[in-house]
Amino acid sequence: MATYAIGDLQGCAAEFDLLLDKIGFGAKDELWLVGDLINRGPDSLAVMRRVMAMGEQCKVVLGNHDLHFLAIYFGGHRPGRSDTYDELLSTHDVEDVAHWLRRCRMLHRDAGKGYVMTHAGLPHIWNIEQAEALAQEVETVLAGDHPQLSYRDFFVDMYGNKPARWDADLAGMPRYRSITNYLTRMRLIADNGTLDFDHKGALSEAPAGWRPWFELVDSTVYPEKVLFGHWAALDGETRNNHTIGLDTGCVWGRELTALHLETGVKTAVKALSG
Asked: How many CB atoms within 10 Å of residue 78?
């Protein structure tokens, strides 16, 4: 059995199928997806059909675009001008798709394989046990198992940049919003854990005083290698072997990339459009 992790699909269903064929993905193999399954690309519904049909063979963590769809469907927010959710929102079983998606994880860890996966990465201010526990707090809300906060109320109030810095004393929606932002929106971070929400470009263009989160992470904080997507401008390059970027910009006309976890070999297919 082989295990593969694939970067942000963002509705690129045709490239997804091509990549699975290229790696020879089989019925006994396992697939990890780093989130942002949908939006911006042309075939979000086809991606969801493919992933949902794989069942337990596929491990998915939620990305900011997945959460954005859920905030539209469950929280009453309106799509943005660049969103491509129309087909997904109008399908006859959109409710089933939305309920399936909200039950996906925020963090997936397999210590035996030596990897942990979130959409945007993991901040240096948490250790692995904290990260798992905090991710599970949000997962409990999304699953509908929180005693005080419904998942619908979470999606109504999910958006926002505050608080920009983690505080263990945070409670309620400020706490869950903060955890969600670290796991799905983080790129640049300060030494004290404050997040920058503005910069989305290359590292060479980063403003002074901010660092990419992966420069502050080491193996004493997260013993497993960290898999992430979210930051297409990196093109997968982090300059270290402990944090592995998998968003190589398929939706922007570049490539869709898969990592073979057992061998460390990457395989990519060219985008068909963009």
From this structure: 7
Angstrom distance (rounded) from CA 18 to CA 55: 20
Note the Cα 203 to chain centre separation in Å: 20
Task: Look up tokens 């809300």; give the residue.
Answer: 141
* Average pLDDT per block of 10 residues along the chain, 274 residues long: 97 98 97 98 98 97 98 97 96 98 98 98 98 98 97 98 98 98 98 96 90 94 97 95 97 98 98 84
What does pTM read for this prediction? Answer: 0.97
**pLDDT (0 to 100) of residue 218:** 87
Closest CA to 22 of 48, 4, 41, 44: 4
> For residue 211, what are its two tokens?
């660092």
CATH number reported for the structural domain that contains residue 86 in this entry: 3.60.21.10
Give the per-residue pLDDT at 274.
64
State how far the Cα of 9 lies from the Cα of 38, in Å rounded to an integer: 7
Q: Report yes or no: 246 and 5 within 8 Å, Cβ to Cβ.
A: yes
In angstroms, the CA 122 to CA 118 distance is 7
DSSP string over 112-157: TTTEEE-SS---TTS-HHHHHHHHHHHHHHHTT--SS--HHHHHHT
Q: Residue 141 belongs to what domain range?
A: 3-270
The amino acid sitting at 238 is T
Give pairs for 202-207: CB < 8 Å, separation 24+: 202/233, 202/234, 203/233, 203/234
Alpha-carbon gap, residue 89 to 212, rounded angstroms: 35
Of 2, 114, 139, give the one whose Cα is nearest residue 57.
2
* Counted domains in the chain: 1
Instruction: Look at the chain and count its residues.
Output: 274
